[in-house]
Amino acid sequence: MAPPASDSRPTLKTIAFMTGLGITTVSRALKNAPDIGAETKERVRLVATQVGYHPNRAGVRLRTGKTNVISLILSLEEEIIGLTSPMVVGISEILASTQYHLVITPYSVGSDPLDPVRYVLDTGAADGVIISRTEPKDPRVALMMERNFPFGTHGRTEMGLVHPYHDFDNERFAYDAVRRLVERGRRRIMLLHPPPYLTYHMHMRAGFERGLQDFGATAVPFNNVDLDNSLADIREACEAAMRAKDAPDGVISGSGAGAVALVAGIEAAGLKLARDVDMVSKQSNDFLQWLRPEVITQREDFRLAGRELAKAVIARIEGRSGSELQTLSFPAPQK
User: Fold this and answer.
1) CATH number where 77 lies
2) 174 and 131 in contact (C-beta within 8 Å)?
3) Which end of the chain is more exposed for a tag (fewer CB within 10 A), N or C?
4) For residue 148, what are the domain limits?
5) CA atoms within 13 A on the CB side of 166
6) Cβ neighbour number for residue 316 with a 10 Å cutoff
7) CA-based nearest residue to 164, from 319, 328, 309
8) Which of 14-18, 127-131, 132-136, 188-192 has the lowest mean pLDDT?
C-alpha cells in the first residue's frame, strides 16, 4: 500500500497504511462494529487520535444521509448558573465511544425557543437533539414529535406524549427539604422556586405544599423573585423578607447559586445561618458546601443527566421506543 500524500489531511487510508489494516476494517473499527475485535478497535482509535483524524462529515452525510451530530440546545441562563459544563461532560462521555459529535446550540430566554429546533429540523444539522428548560406544554416537543425526529428532554412534559427524558425528582427534593427543616424546629418556610412556566416548578411546588401539610409548617410567600432573577434581586428580596414581621425561619433554594444570594440576604438582615434560619438547597457541585457548610445540601447530578440523555437520544435514533428511554434521578443527601 502506498503511503498517503504528506500534505493531505488524515483519512481512513492514512490509518490503514499506519496499521497495516484494510480501509474497510479501519472504517468498521471506528464505528465500533461488533465483528471487529477490541484490540483492533483500540489500535485503530489510537492511531486515529495520533494523526488527528476526523471524519469528513459532508462525505458521511452524502453517503448515509446522517450527520453523526447530536445538538444540545441550551439557554444562556443555564451557563450563567453553571449547569452547562457538567451536562456537556456527561454527554461527551457517552459520545466518546460512538461516531457521534456534540454541537451546542445556544439561545437566550428572550428569544423564541423554537428557533434553534426549527433550524436543526429544516437544515438537517443533526441526527438528534437534547433540549432543557422543559415546559408542561412544550412546543419544541410537539414539533419534533410531529416530524418524528429523535430527541430527549431534560425534564418532563404534561402533554400526554411519550418521549425520551431524564429528570430530577424535584417533588421529592422539596418534600424532604420541608421535613428536614421541621426536624430542626423550623415552622415558617420560604421557597425560592423555578420560573412558573417550567415543568419542574409544578413538581417542586407540589412537594413543598405536601410537605407543609404533612409536617405542620406554614409557607412564607416569596413570589416576587424566582431562580431566573439575578442574584442581586434574590438577595434584595430575601433581605426584605427577613426584615419583615413573621420572617421565615426556614428557607429552601432550588439551586446552589440561588442559595448563595439567599445567604447574603439573610446576613444583610442581621441574622445568622443555622442559628436564626436554617436552609436546604439543591447543588450541582461542591462549592456551596465548601463555602457554607451550615447549608443542608442535596445533590442534583447534571453529569448523570447528560449521560442519560445522550444514551436516550442515540437509542431513539436506532429506533427504540420513547417509553423505554425515560429515567428519573433522586436527591442525594450530602454530609
Assistant:
1) 3.40.50.2300
2) no
3) C
4) 64-163+302-328
5) 21
6) 21
7) 309
8) 14-18
